UniProtKB/TrEMBL annotation:
Gene3D superfamilies on file: Tetratricopeptide repeat domain (1.25.40.10)
Protein name from the UniProt record: Tetratricopeptide repeat protein
SUPFAM superfamilies the UniProt entry points to: TPR-like
Residues annotated as transmembrane: none
Record's signal peptide: 1-25
Keyword Signal attached: yes
PROSITE patterns: PROKAR_LIPOPROTEIN
The entry's keywords: Signal
UniProt keyword Calcium, yes or no: no
Length: 188
């Protein structure tokens, strides 16, 4: 009997890694801002002539931290409209989409982040690959059959391997990668 993808516990692990990953502000000065003030100042900040995409990206981060995910997505969309290849904005958008169980959209946002400008804030591209892999696992969990889920899981495995190439000492990514590999073997 083949294991049930949804009952594997892997989805929970992927969700924990992706959804609980802190979303960081792009600069140290921005991180000192009071979150409530930052939300109230969105229009004022975003109208500044320089770094408007950064202002909207920071607003997205603040809104995610406040668990205002629909508003966070709107802020990230604004940032990405201003700078379509903004990796950090697209990653933050991915995290907010995951919180709303919009897995397919999250996969696309993560995919775009990985081909973006390489601005990951205080993180590295490894976090982008980790989010991408987690998004793929969660999206695979929506598929009705293992045959539809396996290609997505295989892509997730490759994403975790890319993340480990960049940050080989990350034990959570390594454990998730190993569990995913076992699941794929069990499903095939």
């Amino acid at each position: 009997m083949k294991p049930n993808l949804l009952g594997s516990g892997l989805l929970t692990a992927a969700a924990c890694l992706c959804l609980e990953m802190p979303v960081l502000a792009a600069t140290a000065a921005d991180s000192e801002l009071n979150s409530e003030w930052a939300v109230n100042a969105t229009t004022e900040i975003a109208q500044a002539p320089e770094n408007t995409y950064n202002a909207w990206g920071n607003e997205c981060s603040n809104l995610v931290e406040q668990q205002r995910f629909t508003s966070a997505i709107a802020a990230c969309d604004r940032a990405v409209t201003l700078k379509p290849d903004y990796s950090l904005g697209l990653t933050n958008r991915c995290v907010a989409l995951l919180q709303l169980d919009r897995y397919q959209d999250a996969v696309e946002s993560c995919r775009r982040a990985l081909t973006g400008d390489g601005n990951w804030g205080d993180r590295t591209e490894a976090s982008g690959w980790l989010n991408f892999g987690g998004s793929l696992i969660l999206f695979a969990g929506e598929k009705p059959s293992p045959n539809e889920a396996i290609p997505l899981l295989q892509q997730a495995l490759l994403a975790f391997e890319k993340s480990l190439e960049i940050e080989p000492a990350n034990p959570n990514t390594r454990q998730l990668r190993n569990e995913l590999e076992k699941l794929i073997q069990d499903l095939t």
